[in-house]
């Protein structure tokens, strides 16, 4: 990952007790003003093209001991600089990322305490990032943050796309409502989860997507969450001011800090066009460049999994029904009676390997392969898995060799059951086992309440753990796809072996009662702001009772919508989650999943409106093909797109996988049609999408001969 | 460690609803009766030669969920068996240990719940052990013990030698009082400690030493504390009934259990002679045989340390005064200004190596060698040490080679600052570093409040950690001396690489204000019941202000008493804790420390009374020399001992290191005299010990020629 600094940085240091500072974005569209109130409280505001985005908002921190870092400040000096570079991500939505901002650093002195606090603001063309810094001479040493008092004062009763603030889960459907309606909708927004802890009737999670009445789009999140608790937002719904709400530890403390030190960045992405929120790279740009020098082992993967059959309840993770409780190392699985539902058998895995190999997939995930699933959940069990001992019917050696012979890479699964100490104890051995058996990527899971007991999924202590596992994985050249971990904050720039996270309500909930049909029109505006999601798309059979008669869940999506997700839900790790036999029923549609690229030279955000629709075109890396995806919300809609992103003068074959006329996510989800067209950069498409539907297009460069019989678009 | 089964075990299984069971000790001196009360509550009592030791006492457990396991039981069946073996410890007070008991196993069925509970009683000639067992068919699966309701009903208002019940420290002076006086004395018993949490005005710790008015001695403790919270005792001082009080976790839960499973053993040692309490091996016998197959690398050690100069405040652990807070990996120690007090310098270490080598010591401990001591304590710091990075003035390579050339083995120091996760993260690397640099033993420390925050030093979660570190050390062939860890419960039988613990108020407190002068007459009856203590004796300079003018602490012990501790405080790890220069002032007395053995063929407990005096004779393993130690309490006392433990017909030289006539722990602690005598098995000695004094005797086999000029005793 090289970075290219286009313009050097210059620096202005101004000493003196200045009371107001203005910072403009490089293109002048955004303006941030910083000042101190009379009582020495730091405040800032933000404007976009002269329109207020953030009203005057306070900054500060309360400490467990001593004078709070909220007021009594004077400005010691300020620094301004500008920065402009282009860097090359290991994987991503584009092959080069521009990182350009103007920076203001404010050095504050606190009266009486003689403590120092630094505020660093970076204003990009598409938004603002700022953080707190505690310099070496801050007189802080070790200190505990009891509350972060960062305000985001809204200019009105905006529309928000929100999920309930929670210390343990993000796996909620989004609610679209006015800010003033959050309180009334909170109870129904908090649906049941196996581990959850809400904290306030107006508490919501980031990234939070907002829309103002006059058509401005605002996104609030954080970047570079490292060894600090995850930030939520708590709304004062009289004043419409959000305040940061950090995830507490077991004693209610928020962050144990050491000076010199920093907080994560707080980010505000702004535009008058929704699609610009999707193209923003602020979150990555506020993270440090890669700390992994040789990244050649980090590779995007398209994969299948022995997984959906367990999620739907058709098969089981566990091997036997004999044990009420398992003691690893003592319980004898060899002597146990197998149940008839265990999915991770050598035979079944080989069946998946055959299918994955035949259709060109890179990898295969297998869950439920290792002993311990009989009592893995809900028992607050400490030693729940050892991550190296297979069930008797899963032959590690045979599978390793078979997968190798079929050119499919096995993907490891480490469910931790949120027993974090146990996982850390086994981490080296588990990673070594992976490398010895050709597993170079691992899906990790943190289902259930955290051990050590009393901690939360998003508290500092546990955020620290996810990072520990990630950095140790990098030592072993292992890629991580972490489920139920804290939502990403652009850390994959620094540690690009974090190839995906779950950290939101994924496709699995389509088998647990369903997701909202427009869920996937919101996720790119919220969850994906911090990094890719292992959403596990590609479900072709929407009637789950066909897999498991006891499960009446329905997948609220059309088949064409499922295809579009490979484009609209960017991830370097893309699953085809359904069973091989379901793909075999729709091989013409499955062709798109086989064709679609997973790493991109560039992305063009054609149209987008959160909750309603998203249409994106992407050009594959190291190739000339393009792929387009459209996902649609509840209202049938015709999308009008131009193909001017294509290279001028070239001819392509566009294969359009679209909802059939009568398609509907609920009643007729499998109704799709596939059409081929001749297209070039002047082509235009008018394409209808059904409720919960969408379309996917592959655009392959072609010779004139190849396209001569095709209809021109 | 081989074990020799002398008599086979036989087994009687009796089915039916039996309501009372009697169990006798092999010699018939002890009788235990078990029965169910009318409501199905299990009860037991214990008698010694017809005299009540434990009145009828209830047994049972309360669970977090479901019917408590306290009543509604019926007896499904009972089993009786007898056991007699002799086993060979790797190290110890004797080279062979007899393990003989009669066993009663009671299988209980609980009405309604249909749960099963098993009680296993083992009655030895010197006491009782019993535990709860949860069989596979107990219908318990995973369960949480919210309280253990084991009673020990006293027969009267006994005298107790107690320290305050506490979840985090055992480092208290003992109080001798009637049971009825505990409540009134509790406040003054709870002296300040850096991490402490008391729970009840009548809560005390085990092992608890008791004496009845009619001269019976009773000791209450536990054996084989594994993955379970440490047990305290809470006294109902109206009924004089002790009840078990388990150390809670952060949520107040006690033990997370899995069936099949067991609790630790609860032990009651009984005799009408105090010295028999010292010779009891019940605690070891109730532990499993060694799980380490090749124990050849486990070796008792006599050692010195770069330590006392820091404890007294004469030198420092930390290297520099520059940093208010250290970030390992970021803070630059190479560039820092050293303070002038850092003790662990290459030069100083070499000085100690020279002295240790010259005087035949096996090892040298060095504390403060690794970066992180500047802010190690009191900051709830997570990443406090990395256990592998030395300060700039400590040359690992040079010291390794120098120590090797001088035939001294370096002893590693791992202070964790109670940051347990951080220690576990570094454990493999730290152990590997040790082996690479010829360190085969480590002193660990857990000073301060536990991280993960909210846990306690003696809760199940952390007890599990000490065991984890111990077992992992065994994999690396590393011996452990754990300070501030939970007090031992005979686990060293199973894991003989646990060569010592602190887990009580050690010699260091002589530099922190002093210990009670009779402290060492109590410890063998309490703390040492579970295993050896790294008491760090051998202080010759009792006026600490001579080391550090700012420290007015006084060592409440005579010099002769310090010598006696090498015998009376059994440990396979014995330190000579004082500075070389203080030994150089008293080389004739120092000779005893050089001569004394540290591993024993047999031990003879000559006389003992808790709080007053202890006199023990021990014969070295693989040799014919004997060593005798006497420690005395507050009252001057003349000890009359016979040498009939010596081999008949042999002649020895006895060198007696005793208090001088005017010696006194306070005013005249360094007044000692050394006399040599000719002795044989018929010799008798009448020897006076001063307050806080004692004597030590080396008895070396000698030819008639060698003894001809010596006075006969």
From TrEMBL, chains A, B:
N-terminal signal peptide: 1-20
Query: Per its UniProt record, what InterPro entries does this chain match?
Result: Aldolase_TIM (IPR013785), GH (IPR017853), GH-type_carb-bd (IPR014718), GH97_C (IPR029483), GH97_catalytic (IPR019563), GH97_N (IPR029486), Glycosyl_hydrolase_97 (IPR052720)
Record keyword Calcium present: yes
User: GO molecular function, one example?
Assistant: hydrolase activity
Protein name per UniProt: Glycosyl-hydrolase 97 C-terminal, oligomerisation
* Residue ranges of domain Glycosyl-hydrolase 97 catalytic in the record: 307-504
- SUPFAM superfamilies per the UniProt record, alphabetical: (Trans)glycosidases (SSF51445)
Q: Could you tell me which residue ranges the Glycosyl-hydrolase 97 N-terminal domain spans?
A: 23-289
Originating organism: Salegentibacter agarivorans
Q: Which superkingdom?
A: Bacteria
Glycosyl-hydrolase 97 C-terminal oligomerisation domain mapped to chain residues:
599-699
| Subunit structure, as described in the record | Monomer.
Q: What are the entry keywords?
A: Calcium, Hydrolase, Signal
- List required co-factors: Ca(2+)
Organism placement in taxonomy: Bacteria, Pseudomonadati, Bacteroidota, Flavobacteriia, Flavobacteriales
């Amino acid at each position: 990952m090289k970075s290219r600094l286009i313009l050097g940085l210059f620096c202005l240091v101004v000493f003196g007790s200045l009371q107001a500072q203005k910072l403009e974005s490089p293109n002048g569209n955004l303006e941030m003003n910083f000042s101190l109130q009379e009582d020495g409280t730091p405040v800032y505001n933000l404007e976009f093209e002269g329109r207020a985005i953030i009203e005057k908002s306070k900054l500060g921190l309360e400490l467990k001991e001593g004078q709070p870092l909220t007021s009594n400040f004077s400005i010691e000096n300020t620094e301004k600089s500008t920065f402009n570079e282009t860097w090359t991500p290991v994987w991503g939505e584009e092959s080069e990322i521009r990182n350009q901002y103007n920076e203001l650093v404010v050095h504050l002195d606190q009266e009486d305490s003689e403590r120092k606090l630094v505020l660093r603001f970076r204003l990009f063309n598409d938004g603002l990032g700022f953080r707190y810094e505690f310099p070496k001479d801050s007189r802080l040493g070790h200190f505990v943050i009891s509350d972060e008092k960062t305000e985001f004062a809204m200019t009105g009763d905006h529309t928000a796309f929100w999920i309930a603030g929670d210390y343990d889960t993000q796996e909620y459907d989004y609610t679209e409502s006015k800010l003033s309606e959050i309180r009334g909708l909170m109870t129904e927004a908090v649906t049941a989860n196996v581990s959850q802890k809400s904290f306030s009737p107006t508490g919501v999670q980031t990234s939070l997507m907002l829309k103002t009445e006059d058509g401005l789009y605002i996104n609030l999140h954080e970047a570079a969450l490292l060894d600090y608790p995850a930030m939520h937002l708590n709304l004062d719904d009289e004043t419409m001011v959000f305040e940061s709400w950090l995830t507490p530890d077991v004693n209610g403390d928020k962050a144990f800090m050491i000076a010199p030190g920093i907080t994560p960045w707080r980010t505000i992405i702004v535009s008058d066009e929704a699609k610009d929120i999707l193209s923003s790279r602020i979150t990555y740009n506020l993270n440090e460049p890669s700390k992994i020098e040789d990244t050649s082992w980090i590779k995007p993967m398209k994969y299948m999994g022995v997984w959906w059959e367990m999620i739907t309840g058709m098969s089981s993770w566990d091997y036997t029904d004999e044990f009420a409780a398992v003691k690893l190392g003592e319980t004898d699985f060899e002597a146990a009676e197998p149940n008839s539902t265990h999915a991770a058998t050598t035979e079944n895995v080989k069946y998946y390997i055959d299918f994955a190999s035949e259709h060109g997939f890179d990898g295969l995930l297998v869950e439920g392969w290792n002993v311990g699933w009989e009592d893995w959940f809900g028992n607050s069990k400490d030693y729940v898995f050892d991550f190296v001992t297979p069930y008797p019917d899963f032959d590690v050696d045979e599978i390793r060799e078979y997968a190798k012979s079929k050119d499919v890479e096995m993907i490891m699964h480490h469910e931790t059951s949120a027993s974090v100490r146990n996982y850390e104890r086994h981490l080296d051995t588990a990673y070594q086992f992976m490398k010895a058996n050709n597993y170079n990527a691992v899906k990790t899971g943190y289902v259930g309440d955290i051990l050590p007991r009393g901690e939360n999924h998003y508290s500092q202590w546990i955020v620290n753990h996810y990072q520990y596992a990630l950095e140790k994985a990098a030592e072993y050249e292992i890629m991580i796809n972490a489920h139920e971990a804290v939502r990403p904050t652009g850390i994959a720039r620094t540690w690009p072996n974090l190839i995906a996270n779950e950290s939101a309500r994924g496709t699995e909930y389509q088998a647990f009662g369903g997701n909202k049909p427009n869920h996937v029109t919101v996720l790119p505006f919220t969850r994906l702001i911090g990094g890719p999601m292992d959403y596990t798309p590609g479900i072709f059979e929407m009637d789950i009772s066909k897999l498991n008669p006891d499960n009446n869940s329905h997948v609220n999506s059309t088949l064409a919508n499922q295809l579009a997700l490979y484009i609209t839900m960017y991830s370097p790790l893309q699953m085809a989650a359904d069973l091989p036999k379901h793909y075999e029923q729709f091989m013409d549609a499955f062709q798109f999943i086989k064709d679609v690229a997973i790493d991109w030279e560039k992305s063009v955000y054609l149209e987008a409106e959160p909750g309603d629709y998203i249409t994106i075109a992407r050009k594959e890396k190291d190739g000339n093909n393009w792929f387009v995806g459209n996902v649609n919300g509840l209202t049938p809609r015709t999308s009008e797109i131009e193909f001017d992103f294509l290279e001028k003068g070239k001819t392509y074959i566009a294969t359009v996988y679209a909802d059939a006329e009568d398609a509907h996510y609920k009643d007729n989800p499998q109704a799709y049609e596939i059409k081929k067209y001749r297209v070039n950069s002047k082509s235009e498409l008018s394409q209808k999408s059904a409720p919960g539907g969408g379309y996917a297009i592959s655009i392959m460069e072609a010779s004139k001969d190849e396209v001569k019989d095709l209809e021109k678009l």
